[in-house]
């Protein structure tokens, strides 16, 4: 109910004039476009077997931990892509690393949204980006930081709840672009990749038990 009421108020404040939207998108710099392309490439890569191409370089600890997730290939890709995973030999260490990577990816994504906010001159799109900026600040950055604190305290349940809240905030951003007459999402790839990171961290933390 809270989200629905907040969302309804947000809808009332949205500017209905979309006449400058396409012009605003065209004003994105080459740097922003390249960043979107790179995010799209990552989203595709983690969704295929490319993520586990170098099986020989993946530790048994990562393979075992990722078997507890719905998408072991995505989990293996995310963990094995970071050199810090080489020193993580226990499930708790890998769960912590996945949460840390989610936090780092959240900060990177938040910076990307901030760049888009600066680039657009369309008040309609800017309003939507402002909303998503708040969601990412609360979720992928804020809630993952809280999850790390809970993991340090040994409270797996609260850590899992924080990561679940992270997923919810990303979904709220994604949802805002899915309701007419909103424009095609300029954050679709960002949301997809961010959700993969948060879900992997959540599943690994859940596998630790109470």
CATH superfamily: Invertase/pectin methylesterase inhibitor family protein
Helical segment count: 9
Name of the CATH architecture: Up-down Bundle
Q: How is the main sheet built?
A: none
Overall number of domains: 1
Shape: elongated
Structural classification: mainly alpha
Which stretches are poorly predicted, pLDDT < 50 over at least 5 residues?
Answer: 2-9, 14-41, 43-55
β-sheet strand percentage: under 5%
| Rg over C-alpha atoms, rounded to the nearest angstrom | 18 Å
How far do the termini sit from each other? 29 Å
Helicity, as a percent range: over 70%
Element pattern in H and E? HHHHHHHHH
- How many beta-strand segments? 0
- The third-level CATH topology is Butyryl-CoA Dehydrogenase, subunit A, domain 3
The CATH C-level class name: Mainly Alpha
Name the average pLDDT: 81
GO molecular function: pectinesterase inhibitor activity
Family: Belongs to the PMEI family.
Organism: Aristolochia fimbriata (White veined hardy Dutchman's pipe vine)
Domain Pectinesterase inhibitor: 57-204
């Amino acid at each position: 109910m809270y989200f629905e009421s907040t969302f309804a108020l947000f809808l009332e404040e949205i500017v209905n004039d979309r006449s400058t939207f396409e012009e605003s998108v065209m004003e994105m710099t080459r740097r922003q476009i390249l960043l979107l392309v790179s995010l799209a490439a990552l989203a595709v890569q983690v969704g295929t077997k490319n993520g586990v191409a170098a099986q020989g370089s993946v530790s048994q600890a990562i393979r075992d931990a990722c078997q507890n997730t719905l998408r072991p290939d995505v989990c293996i890709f995310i963990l094995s892509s970071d050199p810090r995973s080489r020193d993580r030999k226990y499930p708790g260490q890998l769960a912590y690393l996945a949460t840390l990577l989610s936090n780092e990816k959240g900060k990177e994504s938040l910076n990307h949204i901030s760049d888009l906010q600066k680039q657009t001159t369309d008040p309609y799109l800017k309003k939507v980006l402002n909303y998503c900026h708040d969601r990412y600040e609360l979720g992928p950055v804020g809630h993952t930081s809280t999850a790390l604190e809970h993991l340090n305290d040994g409270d797996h349940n609260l850590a899992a709840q924080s990561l679940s809240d992270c997923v919810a905030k990303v979904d709220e951003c994604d949802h805002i672009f899915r309701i007419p007459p909103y424009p095609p999402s300029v954050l679709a790839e960002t949301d997809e990749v961010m959700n993969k990171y948060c879900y992997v961290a959540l599943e690994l933390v859940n596998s630790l038990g109470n």
